[in-house]
Amino acid sequence: MTEAEPLGYTDEALAGHRCSLAAGLLDGLTVMVSGGGSGIGRTTAWVAARLGAKVIVTGRTTEKLAAVAAGMAAHGLACDTAVVDIRKRETVEAMFDQVLDRHGRIDLLVNSAGGQFPQPAIDYSLKGWKAVIETNLDGTFHMMQCAAQRWRKAATGGSIVNVVVSPRGLHHVAHSVAARAGVIAFSEAVAVEWGPLGIRVNCVAPGAIRSEGWAVYQPHVRNRYANTNPLRTVGTPWDVAEAILYVGGPAGRFISGDTLQITGAGHLWGEVWTTDKPEPFVEATRAFDPAFNKPAE
Prior knowledge:
- The chain is 40% helix and 14% strand.
- It is an alpha/beta fold.
- It has a single domain (11-272), classed as NAD(P)-binding Rossmann-like Domain (Rossmann fold, 3-Layer(aba) Sandwich).
């Protein structure tokens, strides 16, 4: 991909992109996607609707949600919206009750809402740290527990997929790594606790994905990302969305407590610096590979 290509997908691209999952896979199901106004969440909502689901996209910005719903409606897809600040428990409780009043059920909850900013951890302000933890960890907990409590009350069961990060080799977003590690650990724990209730809980961990969030990184930094994994490329929101709906939908019936890595094997080999790579690590790379010290021919 080049810098001239758009970040993310247009409505037309989302409506026409080839889907690898079976048509009708989610017929009759209701899927809620937090952070559905952009990026991976928006793409997941589109794919879910194309597979037959009734979709509810949630987020903090009314305008973003309305634009997603309008785009999907223009292509004959069912989409509702719900404004919520996942950091505030009372708004999450109210949102779930409103959605269930309107739609009667939620079968799959996709927690895609989150955010971070690239910066060395030694320079974080307390406010910045708390903002990332409250959104990525606390907010995900609020969504998960509110869904689980309602599934328990209705005795219906359900499925949760949390979008996290693949932490190995991911640098200068330590606040997000810490928060998402908490989400993974909590997901593994409640996959056991909530299993008898018929609730499955999984995580999907994207690596270098070229979506709207890509824009927060400097061009010279993100241009290196195709070299951060053995496949020597970057992923797309569509790659992640299909993985989410595979593991969270009927195809993942016997999958719970797992984290699916969408990294091109970058979680096994590679490094992702979200800012400039510090000189000590540049020097270590030179020392490890003598080819770096050879003059250009």
